[in-house]
């Protein structure tokens, strides 16, 4: 019965995504909205429509393929086969668990590889976004596997060991993962991100001076301003902050600097500072930690060898012996439909924060015009849907649609 419930839930989630995609395509405007017609003409709008359509078809095919592979592996009893296979290599539960999860991770990576390649060198290349080379693409994947090995494997081993050996395991696993995540957040700007991009200190000049002045006027503890070679992979622009406490750093993509004026860059950074000054980052961190506690509590139920829920869950996937590694995987599959509700709530909260950060940026810079222009440029350059359907927004948008943001700014 539980297997049927999970299967129906997965198909209902897929159908919901399919309906949202169709509605989103249907609501694409036939002419540029008045608010953005200064930066998006009819030709650019048609290009954005084509980009949306190509991505929609690709995403639907990818999701169908992934669902078919999962259901096929499941009902061909791939999970018990793999579990028995790894148990033939070792009697140690931690070792067998790492082998089980590692094989699934490698299989998923191999399945995703041709899709990622087509997305980069097919779709993004076709619409003029891709700047990555096959060499860079392959090196990024190798680096990702390397990081998964040196960081992911110890974390997985720690979680498996805790659930197998420690009383009240879910509490200690939650604490362990929380500490590791905070540590990685602190170390990532220095040791992980530079593996993929080059961070160059911004040279002295008007832009750097203005950024430093903005940081001081907003009470933002700025330690450094860096330029990222984002153009090595894409023409799309971005900017973000890294660091904890008084060790805040600003990272701007070289594409953002190239395409934006100084007032527009300052407005974008003021928006990001707004998240810091309004406490959004701390709030999200706190809620994320609480959410992780709930997840680990449920994982504890899914891996309890004497528990009814764990027995039902393993029976649903045709696995006789309850273990931590199988429970983790089955719970993740079970959680996917349920987590959509949490994602919807989180996105609604995030959109509220984005409006607040926009308002803060308008106050900090003294005018909303620069941020409005910057948002319009980013949307136009990224070929974003100018007026996405409400269902698509509710399901997936962590940021409000462009026209809503412009309206809130009074533009």
Q: How are the secondary structure elements laid out?
A:
Blueprint lengths: L1 H25 L15 H34 L2 H10 L5 H34 L7 H32 L3 H24 L6 E3 L4 H12 L4 E7 L10 E4 L5 E6 H6 L2 H16 L2 H24 L4 H9 L7 H42 L3 H13 L8 H7 L5 H7 L3
Parallel strand pairs: 2-4
Antiparallel strand pairs: 1-2, 3-4
Shape call: globular
Per DSSP, the total helix count is 15
Percent of residues in helices comes to over 70%
Whole-number mean pLDDT: 92
- The span between the termini is 54 Å
- What percent strand? under 5%
Structural class: mainly alpha
How many strands appear in the DSSP assignment? Answer: 4
Ranges where pLDDT stays below 50 over 5 or more residues in a row are none
**Major β-sheet, in short?**
4 strands, mixed
Using only CA atoms, what is the Rg?
Answer: 23 Å
Compressed to H and E, one letter per element, the order equals HHHHHHEHEEEHHHHHHHH
Number of domains: 2
Structure characteristics:
411 residues, mainly alpha, Zincin-like, 15 helices, 4 strands, globular
Question: What do these coordinates show?
Answer:
Strand 3 (239-242) and strand 4 (248-253) form a beta hairpin. Helices cover 72% and strands 5% of the residues. Helix 1 runs parallel beside helix 12 (324-365) and helix 3 (78-87) crosses helix 4 (93-126). Strands 1-2-4-3 form a 4-stranded mixed β-sheet. It is globular and about 65 Å long. The protein has 2 domains: 2-168 and 278-408, no CATH class; 199-276, Metalloproteases ("zincins"), catalytic domain (Zincin-like), CATH 3.30.2010. It is built from 15 helices and 4 strands. The model has no long low-confidence stretch (mean pLDDT 92). By secondary structure, the protein is mainly alpha-helical. The longest helix is centred in the C-terminal third of the chain and has 42 residues, at 324-365.
